[in-house]
Design brief:
The chain has 165 residues and is mostly helical. Helices cover 70% and strands 0% of the residues.
């Protein structure tokens, strides 16, 4: 949206028009985030400029959204909760998945350290590059079962190497 602000109000109006009258069925747009877009200004922005931008936005949104939609958007803005938006849910889900991956990585490294002592730095780095939970879960099982670090390293190399076709 910042890129749209730089292109000017006509480009923004075109995009809003397309979102309302045609593309909304192809992409998910959250009205609250759309209405909040022009307020994505640095906190140190002069108050007069914020007021000016608000008035500009009001004039741009007015012809596109009817009065009831404007009031609904304003009410939601004043009681804004990011978790109630599609973007907020997506951010939450991404953070959750990232946390799960990091947890499994740490578990694998902890098991290896407990069983075999110091884990070589290259092995540690390879484990930390794996971004697929299923691979990490398999490595977790291997860390428990494998007789030594060499056997584990063989499994690790399979997990980090691209499949041969």
């Amino acid at each position: 949206m910042n890129a749209l602000k730089k292109k000017g109000p006509d480009q923004l109006k075109f995009v809003l028009h397309k979102l309302k009258f045609g593309l909304h069925s192809q992409i998910q747009v959250d009205r609250v985030l759309l209405v909040l877009a022009p307020f994505n200004l640095p906190t140190e922005t002069d108050k007069a400029l914020v007021l000016e931008k608000s008035k500009e936005w009001c004039h741009q949104v007015g012809p596109i959204f009817d009065c009831s939609q404007q009031q609904e958007a304003l009410d939601r803005m004043l009681n804004f909760d990011l978790m109630e938006t599609v973007a907020g849910q997506q951010l939450h889900d991404m953070g959750h998945e990232k946390g799960l991956l990091e947890s499994v990585r740490e578990d694998v490294l902890e098991i290896l350290e407990e069983r075999f002592g110091i884990v070589p730095n290259d092995m540690n780095q390879q484990i930390r590059t794996i971004s697929q939970r299923e691979y990490l879960k398999q490595l977790h099982k291997q860390a428990i079962r494998c007789p030594d670090l060499d056997h584990f390293n063989e499994m690790l190399l399979k997990a980090v190497s691209p499949p041969k076709q």
